[in-house]
Design goal:
Elements: E1 8-12, E2 36-40, E3 43-44, E4 50-55, E5 90-93, E6 96-99, E7 116-124, E8 132-135, E9 140-145, E10 151-160, E11 164-165, E12 169-175, E13 184-188, E14 190-192, E15 196-198, E16 201-202, E17 213-220, E18 226-232, E19 241-247, E20 252-253, E21 258-259, E22 263-268, E23 280-281, E24 286-287, E25 293-303
Parallel strand pairs: 3-12
Antiparallel strand pairs: 1-25, 2-4, 4-9, 5-6, 7-8, 7-10, 10-11, 10-12, 13-25, 14-15, 16-22, 17-20, 17-21, 17-25, 18-19, 18-22, 23-24
């Protein structure tokens, strides 16, 4: 989105936001990954467009159709483009020939009809416009919002028969505020998965990020010296490379300045005393666990005129 007729550069920080999720209907055989609300991008500057979409893909059954496709003489569903493709007395509805007078969604063709449903999506504090309140006609749809504040989108609803509630879900879109709200913290907890180490952080867990949001500095907030690996800009490439630097406690680096993207990893520097004695990971216990590590990112929102 074009900002006011000047360039605004705001040295700000980002609030940690909830990862993207799949909004799934709880029962009755719906495939995972097909029932969801998406919010993209997940990190934006004030007033930039964010698309909020839903896609229910409800289960269809022939017994739910008010005007079943097919004919009394035993002929099954006939596909069509226009009513002229259908036998006398039939109309083309949703791509199939059905009895005259049938409306959209009432003629199931060879797949059946969807159940009655309701769907509500709320935005707090920035609402959807037009609102999505007790939506009962569109299984798929989108709204565009331009939040000036961090906003949480919440989906709830259900369908019948049989009575089934949609699992309530929330998704947050983070907006860089006009007031400093503190740095964006990133934690690297010590884990014993396939061996001792520290869990990394991927920006992709936040959803997509506006290109106007960039990193301006990184500070080691651990009380230990760390080896920090993060994304860097590669000339002529739209994908991040990576680089590693050593950061003492409280030290700051500009090595990773640029787009807020990619994956970040941290490890205890071998010279740090906490690296000894080495940890031991077993299926039931961890001996000599190493400390968790952390950094904070300072962010910038640059909106070009």
């Amino acid at each position: 989105m074009k900002a006011p007729m000047h360039t605004r550069t705001q040295l700000l920080a980002l609030l940690l936001l909830v990862p993207l999720f799949g909004c799934k209907i709880e029962t009755h055989g719906l495939a995972d990954g097909h029932n969801f609300m998406s919010v993209e991008p997940g990190v934006v500057c004030p007033g930039e467009p964010v698309e909020v979409c839903w896609d229910l893909v409800l289960p269809r059954r022939q017994e739910l159709c008010e005007c079943p496709a097919g004919f009394p003489d035993g002929r099954g569903p006939i596909s069509c483009v226009a009513s002229s493709d259908c036998p006398e007395g039939a109309s083309c509805v949703d791509g199939f020939c059905c009895a005259a007078g049938c409306g959209p969604g009432e003629c199931g063709g060879d797949t059946g009809c969807r159940p009655d449903f309701r769907l509500t999506i709320t935005g707090d504090p920035v609402p959807l416009d037009p609102p999505v309140v007790d939506e009962s006609g569109q299984e798929q749809g989108c709204r565009t919002i331009r939040p000036d504040r961090t906003t949480t989108l919440a989906l709830e609803g259900g369908f019948r028969p049989p009575p089934t509630e949609l699992q309530d879900e929330e998704q947050t879109v983070t907006v860089i505020d006009a007031r400093p709200v503190g740095p964006f913290p990133v934690a690297f907890p010590f884990v014993c998965d396939r061996g001792p180490g520290w869990r990394g952080f991927s920006v992709s867990t936040l959803g997509s990020v506006s290109p106007n949001v960039t990193v301006t500095s990184v500070r080691n907030t651990s009380s230990h010296t760390i080896d920090l690996t993060g994304p860097v800009v590669l000339p002529g490439s739209d994908r991040p490379g990576s680089n590693t630097t050593v950061l003492r406690p409280g030290a700051t680096t500009n090595m990773f300045n640029g787009p807020f993207w990619g994956t970040w990893h941290a490890a205890l520097n071998p010279t740090d005393r906490a690296a000894l004695p080495p940890p031991e990971c077993t299926p039931t216990a961890v001996t000599n666990p190493l400390p968790g590590l952390s950094i904070e990112l300072m962010m910038q929102c640059s909106v070009e005129p």
